[in-house]
Amino acid sequence: MWPTTRLMFQAREKFTRKFRKLPLTTKDINKGFYKGNRTGSMGRHTRFGGYIIEWDKVRTYVVPEGMDSFKLSPFVTNKVQRTRGQYEGYARGPSDPQLYLERWKDENGLD
């Protein structure tokens, strides 16, 4: 017995109901879909394929008063010394396969 069209559409609707609530991605839609990041346009397209910037739409950031003499500091200090690994006895240094296997056995505890 063949299912009626009504039953077929009900079954399809049950499978796609959860999918409809998910946000769209570029893999869900055919080509030409651009999601963007909700920042808005800064101009308009011309009919010849160019783009005209409308300067009243361009975002500008005003620096608060007193911040012109502010000095930024790095996240990591420059006084940290770089540590070097010890690879004596390994022909290829840190990319030696024997070193990889030994470290894997030490860290995982398996054969």
From TrEMBL:
Localisation: Mitochondrion
Q: Which keywords annotate this record?
A: Mitochondrion, Ribonucleoprotein, Ribosomal protein, Transit peptide
Organism per entry? Pestalotiopsis fici (strain W106-1 / CGMCC3.15140)
Q: Which InterPro entries match?
A: Ribosomal_mL41 (IPR019189)
Q: Name any one Pfam family assigned in the record.
A: MRP-L27
GO-annotated biological processes: translation
Q: Where does the UniProt entry say this protein principally localizes? A: mitochondrion
User: In which domain of life is the source organism classified?
Assistant: Eukaryota
Which GO molecular-function terms appear in the entry?
Answer: structural constituent of ribosome
Per the UniProt record, the lineage of the source organism begins with:
Eukaryota, Fungi, Dikarya, Ascomycota, Pezizomycotina
Family per similarity comment: Belongs to the mitochondrion-specific ribosomal protein mL41 family.
| Name of the molecule in the record | 54S ribosomal protein L27
Instruction: Output the Gene Ontology cellular-component terms.
Output: mitochondrial large ribosomal subunit
Q: Where does this protein have coiled-coil stretches?
A: none
